[in-house]
Amino acid sequence: MRRLRWLLPPVIIAIVIVLGGRYLKNKDILAHNAPAKPAPLAPGIASHTNEFCVVQSDGDRPRFEVCAASSTQLTNPPVTQLEGVKIKLYVDDARKYDYVTADKAQFDQAAKKLVTDGDFEITIGVPSDDKTPKGRLLSIRGAGGEFSSETGVATTDKPVHFEFEQGSGT
Known about the structure:
The protein is of the alpha+beta class. 15% of the residues lie in helices and 51% in strands. The chain is built from one helix and eleven strands; from the N terminus they run αβββββββββββ. It has one helix at 8-33; strands spanning 45-58, 61-74, 79-91, 96-108, 113-115, 119-127, 138-143, 145-148, 154-156, 161-164, 167-169. Strands 1, 2, 3, 4, 5, 6, 7, 8, 9, 10 and 11 form an eleven-stranded antiparallel beta sheet that branches. The longest helix is centred in the first third of the chain and has 26 residues, at 8-33. The radius of gyration is 29 Å and the shape is elongated. The N and C termini lie far apart (101 Å).
């Protein structure tokens, strides 16, 4: 054993060199294959995300669900711009919901209002269990709508079109 004592330090050094070489090689491979860094956000934009979805519940009952294809939060004024908006507002102990869709909308955090200058559609009384309702759905189409999240009231000063099983009107 005493004759092999001189062999131990060179073996340790060789192991350290081999492991260090592998580490550096793998580090270079990982750096080369790393995804590109995203472009920096423009001034005035706090965040941007795709496939945005927020759900709020009271215990096990959902209150509302807001989903959007993309969301951009601005810093001044503090608003969130949404595209491809789909909202479910649950009523009757979450047995039904009112379904709101819009191509674009803007949520003002200070006023707690959702505003859209474009077209929107509201379908009232959609069953949560995905069963087809019998004549009880009311569809409202319009443009330039405003929805208050505090009062639950939707308003517009432009013409709207109502549609239900037994008729329609403007």
